[in-house]
Known about the structure:
By secondary structure, the protein is an alpha/beta fold.
Amino acid sequence: MRGYGRSNAPFTAAARPVTLGGTVKNYHDGGEAILEAFRNLGIDYIISSPGSEWSSVWEALARQKTGNHPGPTYFDVWHETTAVDMAIGYTQMTGRMQAVLLHAGAGLLQGAVAVQAAQQTEVPMLVMSGESLSFGEDPDFEPGAQWYRSLSVVGGPQRLIEPVVKHATMATSPYSLYETVVRCGELAQRQPCGPVYINVPVEHMVHPWTAPAKMRRVPLAPKSQPMQADIEALADRLAKAANPVIEAQSAGKDPAVMPALVALAELLGAGVFEGSSTTHANFPKDHPLHQGANFDAAAKDADVVLLVASRNPWYPPRNRPAGAFIAAIGENPIKGHWVYQHLHADMYLEADVATTLALLCQALVARGVTAETHKARRDSRAKAHDALQASLRAAEATRAALRPVDPLALIAALRKTMPADAIYVDETIVHSPMVRNHLGWNLPQSYFYTYGGLGQGIGVALGVKLAAPQRPVVLLIGDGSLLYNPIVQGLGASRDCNLPILIVVFNNKKYQAMQNNHERYYPDGIAVGQKLWHGVAINGPDYDRLGAPFDFPGVKVDDPAALKPALAKGLAEVAAGRTAIVNVVLNR
Ligand SMILES: Cc1ncc(C[n+]2csc(CCOP(=O)(O)OP(=O)(O)O)c2C)c(N)n1
Ligand SMILES: [Mg+2]
């Protein structure tokens, strides 16, 4: 077999097909270039929902295995959403970029919702698929008739994905393939991080490849540091502030941020709020300075507001705290991938968040601020923290015995049953504010809200589990949201990749969010008056039985008394290696 344009190839000794043991050929081609680039980028996993363009990478993986070479582990999964979301979950947990191999234009489109989620959450990723350039017209290379018959995309598959990635390109030749993959990997990890797509024509992949004379281990993106003058200016304000308030939304993306934020908040005696759009575990929820979600109210009286990795701290966007000086800290506070956003910041510190917070602490200490300086403020925040927790517990108590189960009873049972190192992946909708308020987590990397269209939760949870096999991973998911997921494919990946998770279904038998919205738009309308809803009811299956084909256990709970035993049993199943589904029938 000769590849497209092969006749001009520098057929070096390294690139020449080698006969091993008289029968097996050892092709050193574009597939090897891609795998070598992945190795040098430090990619741990190649997650694929396969297509016929990937033979050369599979050949290179077979060579990696038979040669006992170190390199990425490969997973096939049954759906593109699952593949992309597993990469998202793994990267969210580790910060390490992964590679996803999809198929032509079709697989790419199928994965596009999840790819967009990676863009929206600024998760670096390499996404690749292929096409054919020769369509069978090259007498020396047979790419497969499918490329001529049904797979071509006018303008290349990159056109299909371009709006939802950071950069979409085509590998222009077999000679530039290796460096294109490396460059795109580097690009994906630069601020703002995001998915980068490469269309790799199959002809380039089967073409001989000569490795560069010297290959390098590709360095990670360097961390950035704010100008010292900006740190000093903000420290001056903070040192003098009468009522500084902190809001953190996605700060916990980097696990180094939580301890740095604790140190700064303690020095300042400042309350830390996590708004209604919190995506990560930013601050220990049992810390006396943790003040819950009601940031808008607190910000009104603030004189300095610190926004830490926040995208939309208040709503409506014009609702800025009028009297406060607003400083936004984040690597990429102004986000070009959203249509409208306004932080109303008076100052930006655009740099690595943990570094910035540590520098602010140093500058405050240099100004004589100690743990004692703001003790009174800290004590009053601690009182507010205790009062808030007491009110949350009281709300839970009033609903503890309702039947079917009240969501607050479910969340309280989770809080009491799950271990301290549990990681929650949240794809609930109307229940997510309750989850954020009532559930507890105190360790970094304990909470991930899934962004983008519905259907991401299972894949993200599996990716998180892949990165943190020792920690229990709990997917909290609405009944409607669950049904947007590739469920069979996700459960298959759970079994085949040995990634057991606990799935807790918040089953209110409807798209409550749709009903809420209708009520908001037409409070006096016919639908409200007659309870005549469209777009609301879900006649779903028995979610607890969905794991049966995989021998995964499930249980339906509609009695609050059965909640804790069911959750504990589910946890035990997960510890024993089996995904478990707890389907909780809710009253709202
Ligand atoms: C892919 C996709 N399709 C449709 C929607 C619109 N949508 C947003 S919330 C929601 C309801 C989800 O139902 P469920 O998970 O049961 O949550 P509940 O509304 O009951 O809280 C829907 C359909 C969406 N966000 N993404
Ligand atoms: Mg629902």
